[in-house]
Amino acid sequence: MKRLSFYLVAFALLPLSVAETGAEASLEAYGYRYRVQAILDGRVKARMIIDTGSSHTIITPKIARKLGITNLSKAPSIPLSSAGGVEWMRLVTLQSVTIGGHETKMVEGAVSSRLGRGVDGLLGMNFLGDYSHIIDGRQMKLVLKPAYETGELYGEKNQAWWRQRFSRYQRIIKKYTSIRDKLENGSPPMTAPVSKKGKTFTDKEIGAIIMYYKGLRAELARRAKALSMPLSWQNGR
């Protein structure tokens, strides 16, 4: 409750000009949190809890099926943190997430069956981080203003956004490649920080995670090339 109050006070102190120029989406109360409607992949409506503590945008198995994601058992598994704690989840890719007219493409997603009733997913920072966002608890609205639309733009995103995306994918690929190399050299399996006792990464799981992020990086590079984006922007520095 204290954390929620802090956020409301902080958001209330932000300049009114941000709220006036940003796109708005209606909020619904969900316990001590807020729920907003999103459109996934341009066609599937989903009731999403706003979760600034989650790095990924998370969906339920039901929503995954509506999106045509069927082979979840073959998707890479990874421990992810959200407001509800740490859980092993299957990684998926959302082609787009749209809220209040704002769209982010190629969103890293994960699937969880522990989100509770009346919830289709959690809206994480890999969407929210693209925007200056205000949660207005009094007027029950979410205000979004693009954070990466200044300067020279390619695909409606500036150099900082592109560099950040490429850097993130490369950093994760490097991390899990290092873990795999250590396993191949005889190091003990890495135990993930999750309550499921004894759960460790297997070589197969690590390989699947690496391939997932290499796929995202390759798709991002394909988009960059199609937009004739400067090659130097793919450098994460």
From TrEMBL:
<dbReference type="InterPro" id="IPR034122">
    <property type="entry name" value="Retropepsin-like_bacterial"/>
</dbReference>
<dbReference type="InterPro" id="IPR021109">
    <property type="entry name" value="Peptidase_aspartic_dom_sf"/>
</dbReference>
<dbReference type="Pfam" id="PF13650">
    <property type="entry name" value="Asp_protease_2"/>
</dbReference>
<protein>
    <recommendedName>
        <fullName>Peptidase A2 domain-containing protein</fullName>
    </recommendedName>
</protein>
